[in-house]
From TrEMBL:
<comment type="similarity">
    <text>Belongs to the LysR transcriptional regulatory family.</text>
</comment>
<keyword id="KW-0804">Transcription</keyword>
<dbReference type="GO" id="GO:0003677">
    <property type="term" value="F:DNA binding"/>
</dbReference>
<feature type="domain" description="HTH lysR-type">
    <location>
        <begin position="12"/>
        <end position="69"/>
    </location>
</feature>
<dbReference type="InterPro" id="IPR036388">
    <property type="entry name" value="WH-like_DNA-bd_sf"/>
</dbReference>
<dbReference type="Pfam" id="PF00126">
    <property type="entry name" value="HTH_1"/>
</dbReference>
<dbReference type="InterPro" id="IPR036390">
    <property type="entry name" value="WH_DNA-bd_sf"/>
</dbReference>
<dbReference type="Pfam" id="PF03466">
    <property type="entry name" value="LysR_substrate"/>
</dbReference>
<dbReference type="InterPro" id="IPR000847">
    <property type="entry name" value="LysR_HTH_N"/>
</dbReference>
<protein>
    <submittedName>
        <fullName>Transcriptional regulator LysR family</fullName>
    </submittedName>
</protein>
<dbReference type="InterPro" id="IPR005119">
    <property type="entry name" value="LysR_subst-bd"/>
</dbReference>
<keyword id="KW-0238">DNA-binding</keyword>
<dbReference type="GO" id="GO:0005829">
    <property type="term" value="C:cytosol"/>
</dbReference>
<keyword id="KW-0805">Transcription regulation</keyword>
<dbReference type="GO" id="GO:0003700">
    <property type="term" value="F:DNA-binding transcription factor activity"/>
</dbReference>
<dbReference type="InterPro" id="IPR050950">
    <property type="entry name" value="HTH-type_LysR_regulators"/>
</dbReference>
Amino acid sequence: MKNTLDVLMSRLRMKQLQLLIALDDHKSLHKASSAMAMTQSAASKALAELESMLEAPLFERAKTGLIPNPFGRCVVRYARVLAADLSALCQEVAQIRAGTGGRLTVGTIMGAVPDIVAPMINEMHARHPDLAIEIVEDTSARMLPMLDDGRVDLVVGRSSVSDQPSKYHYQPLTDEPLCIVVGHDHERTGAREVGFADLAHYRWVTYPSYLPMSALLERELDLAGLPMPSNPISTASPLMTVTLLQQSAELVSILPASVAKVFERHGMLRILPVRMKSKSQTFGIVTRKGGELSPAARQFAQMLREQSRPH
């Protein structure tokens, strides 16, 4: 292992790592070499040199083109991290030279936005007005690869959805309760308590199966002895969900309670008094093991931890 490390430290070039990324993106040596402004023979030689250094082949030929094997996937992942870190280095150096305050990129699940992430982003902006801040809102499963590649500094979500959760540091923050919602003028909004059986004849706005809300809704309906809704309207967009509910009294859906309360306060939705039997899932701060947080990301994570402590 030490010999391999010595070889990499003395002979590895960033151009070789960029070529790996291009090969992973384009699945073709010809297209990757064109994207890198290299001749195909030079690209082939650079790949061969890298494989010789690592003492392992990195790609296999398939019907869809060049596909990284397990060694290749590992090296490509670290190549993307190094490329992202170098890009961040260049940006920070340029920002320091220009007298501005750096950059922070935060990934977050939807349920953490209203009560956790948004207040801290506003506070961070007030403390550091020159800091460039980017927010990525998506599922944990989709954001963890972005964390792996260095495209986000940290994720407010769940590491448990990964097939390798031990790759990450995870610090729990709070639970994410869900609730059943309808449009503001829905006929059920005056009821004292509503069961899932009472909603059986309404049409549901549901979510794709990869979203946790879909699994929880299926579990709740199963506990109530009901099947999943037939012919639902499915969307991954909370804005589309809210818009559909607002425009039709025949629809019902499920949302994180923190998100639903925002729309309820603005007279767009109503939260139905449906008792949920499933335990709320916990979310927290997810960071890469072995990665070093930027000063801005480190401060933001500390602010999140302080906000979640009981007062």
